[in-house]
Amino acid sequence: MAKPMSRVSEAQLIPISFTLNGRLQEIEVQPHELLLDVVRERLGLTGAKRSCDVEVCGACTLLVDGRPVSACTTLAFEVRGRSVLTIEGLAENGKLHPLQQAFIEHGGFQCGFCTPGMILAAKALLDENPDPSEAELKHFMHGNICRCTGYKKIIESIMAAAKTMRSVG
Amino acid sequence: MLRRFRLEEPESVSEVSELLGRFGDSAKIYAGGTELLLAMKEGLVQYERLIDVKKLRCKDVTLENGALSIGALCTHRELETSEVIKEKLPALAKLEHNVANVRVRQVGTIGGNLCFAEPHADPGTLLIALGAKMIAEKSSAQREIPAEEFFVDAFETALEPDEVLTKIVVPVPGPTGRSAYLKFGYLERPSVGVGVAFNLNGQVSSMRIAVGCAGPAPRRVQDAEALLEGKSREEAERNLAQAGALAGRAAQAITDLHGSQDYKEHIVGVLLKRAFLSALS
User: Fold this and answer.
1) CB neighbours of residue B260 within 10 Å
2) CB atoms B11 and A1 under 8 Å
3) Do A55 and B38 touch (CB under 8 A)?
4) pLDDT at A7
5) Is the pLDDT of residue B1 over 90?
6) A25-34, A149-158, B221-230, B259-268, range with the lowest pLDDT
């Protein structure tokens, strides 16, 4: 526990260690630093996007211990001891994840701004529920917004990836 | 952008209470942060200290003496997936399944949701209908606050400045118990929410109705309950329109981006009817 009487004007540094895309990171953060800023500005991974900034759109989605969070509204110290996955960590040894491959094959994106969040949210869904119904998929993904109106292709992409993942998994 | 603040990470309720007492309005309890951090980023509120309460042991869901005790630090996700909640309080499990989106449910806590008292929140309304009690603690004392007395106004609860909400106790409905919560809105947050709970054993008894989201705080509507209490199912269904009109007025609906006052009052009536019928089915 931090010393309660320490002055507000002094910078409080919290040492945190966590894994980012499988690699151990040890950094110090201030309490008010947001996970999205740390990942984008300090660690140089710009796949997650700042868009609505109010946990509605999903463009900043990251997976923390496999579950989706809004990095725009997550304090960075919260990932202490946890595992963070960004879109940059999804492909393995140069081979795209089935979700990434399916989004390409099925035209699951237009401008691409929402895509990292879409794919990470979909990964969390499929890891939990490998064979979702379309209704389950829509309920899970309803907090990820595409403003190119590409939902049909996105749903097709995720369903196709689910099928691929079931066949190999 | 968030302004700089200091973080405290106490491990007991008495430490939290002591910190709240010592730092007063310059400190705020922080749990999931899904509401608080938004308000801080917007600059609507500012605190020198956040008191992270996630080290407190307030995450259990237990069945005790015919009631479910829900730890205030349970996330919406934990409640929507809890087997005991799904079995004993299916209306609450369904409500939690539909709170905001999957990311908010992952980190947002039931206690944070209730204490922040954002008017367009779901759980408080159903908890009032279910006759829940909020357990508030501080260093030396613990007390129960009925859910219907917990919400004082928008963003204002009955908690004292150094009190901490530690759990929510919800009576488990008996075999004849029915309950439902329905909401409607076209923005991210609901415009109107209606919760009902009652027993049906030849006639309607222990009827409780609550409305939320439309006005500053969720409210129980006893006038509307009286129109259904003691009635046969058919009589109660006939009285739903009148009960809905009373509930609409009791909602203290305000005209804003979520709809006009008239519109919200109308929707309260529609949702009350649908909630009652869906609780029967």
Assistant:
1) 13
2) yes
3) yes
4) 64
5) no
6) A149-158
Residue whose pair of structure tokens reads 């969070």 in the numeric block: A69
Q: Which of B15, B31, B52 is the last residue of a domain?
A: B52
Q: State whether A82 and A26 are in the same domain.
A: yes
Which residues in B41-50 are b (16+ Cβ under 10 Å) and which e? beeeeebbbb
Same domain, A29 and A52: yes
Measured between beta carbons, the chain A residues lying within 8 angstroms of B33 are 73-75
- At residue A5, the pLDDT reads 54
Test mutation, A9, A16, A56, chain B, max B CBs within 10 A: A56
Pick from B5, B107, B188: CB nearest A31: B5
| Contact residues, chain B, for A58 at CB < 8 Å | 101, 103
Q: Does B144 touch chain A (CB under 8 A)?
A: no
User: Between A and B, how many residue pairs show a Cβ–Cβ distance under 8 A?
Assistant: 78
Residues 6+ apart with CB under 8 A from A140: A121, A124, A125, A129, A132, B102
Residue B1 lies in a domain: no
CA distance B166 to B119: 21
Per-residue pLDDT tens over the stretch A62-109 = 999 999 999 999 999 999 999 999 999 999 999 999 999 999 999 999
Is B253 among the domain residues?
Answer: yes
Give me the domain span that covers residue A134.
98-168
Its pTM stands at 0.96
Is B102 an interface residue toward A (CB < 8 Å)?
A: yes
ipTM of the modeled complex? 0.95
